[in-house]
């Protein structure tokens, strides 16, 4: 079991829950049973302090011992009751101010109380032009692998980011992409997210990515394939 203060570099598998979506009791029970290292609360649209905090408290009520972190996407959506905060920076965004403005506004209000030792900035490379974050940030999707590697170099070498996130959100990506990114940048913590709906797909991406994210499958197909026979909260 992971300690609540462990950061992303210690997580191999995580579930991302969208605070704006409906979470039935049975769904939260499945989340509790899932064999993952952490739970992350995050969404592109409609995240508020209230719905994010309510979701965190609903998980806490089940005595979940896994780390619960929030991926921040809105200046009015900072959750309470979480163990830490992730701040995504979309490296291939054309509208670079979208998240930056939100972060600055958030920091005006919360800078003094944010636990900075439990905050992480993550360089996102958005790979699917149909996903919500691509539309919100007007992401310019990489044309080829060299584009991906250039964005990775920008994030890690120029900006000093320790974590890169390949965001396919809603679509299963080409395993050669994380393979080549990890080969070129073995020192970084590489995260893959998008289209994971089976243990086979998860294991495929886990061969190259340090962390694999399960998201939409929770809402569309459930997590019976990820769950053990008993809850290990």
UniProtKB/TrEMBL annotation:
It comes from the Bacteria. Keywords: Lipid biosynthesis, Lipid metabolism, Magnesium, Metal-binding, Phospholipid biosynthesis, Phospholipid metabolism, Transferase. This is Heptaprenylglyceryl phosphate synthase. PANTHER family: HEPTAPRENYLGLYCERYL PHOSPHATE SYNTHASE (PTHR40029:SF2), PTHR40029. Gene3D superfamilies: FMN-linked oxidoreductases. GO terms for biological process: glycerophospholipid biosynthetic process. It catalyses: sn-glycerol 1-phosphate + all-trans-heptaprenyl diphosphate = 3-heptaprenyl-sn-glycero-1-phosphate + diphosphate. It comes from Ferroacidibacillus organovorans. One of its GO terms (molecular function) is heptaprenylglyceryl phosphate synthase activity. Signal peptide: none annotated.
């Amino acid at each position: 079991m992971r300690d609540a203060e462990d950061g992303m570099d210690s997580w191999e598998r995580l579930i991302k829950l969208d605070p704006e979506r409906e979470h039935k009791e049975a769904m939260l029970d499945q989340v509790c049973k899932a064999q993952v290292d952490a739970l992350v609360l995050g969404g592109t649209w409609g995240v508020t302090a209230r719905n994010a905090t309510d979701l965190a408290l609903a998980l806490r009520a089940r005595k979940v011992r896994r780390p619960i972190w929030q991926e921040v996407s809105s200046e009015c959506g900072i959750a309470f009751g979480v163990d830490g905060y992730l701040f995504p920076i979309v490296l291939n965004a054309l509208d670079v101010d979208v998240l930056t403005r939100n972060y600055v506004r958030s920091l005006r209000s919360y800078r003094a109380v944010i636990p900075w030792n439990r905050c992480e900035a993550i360089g996102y490379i958005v790979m699917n032009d149909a996903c919500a974050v691509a539309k919100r940030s007007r992401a310019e999707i990489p044309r080829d692998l060299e584009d991906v590697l250039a964005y990775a170099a920008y994030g890690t070498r120029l900006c000093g980011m320790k974590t890169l996130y390949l965001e396919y959100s809603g679509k299963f990506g080409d395993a050669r992409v994380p393979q080549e990114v990890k080969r070129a940048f073995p020192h970084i913590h590489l995260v893959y997210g998008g289209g994971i709906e089976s243990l086979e797909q998860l294991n495929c991406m886990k061969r190259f990515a340090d962390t694999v994210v399960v998201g939409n499958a929770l809402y569309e197909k459930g997590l019976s394939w990820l769950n053990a026979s008993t809850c290990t909260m």
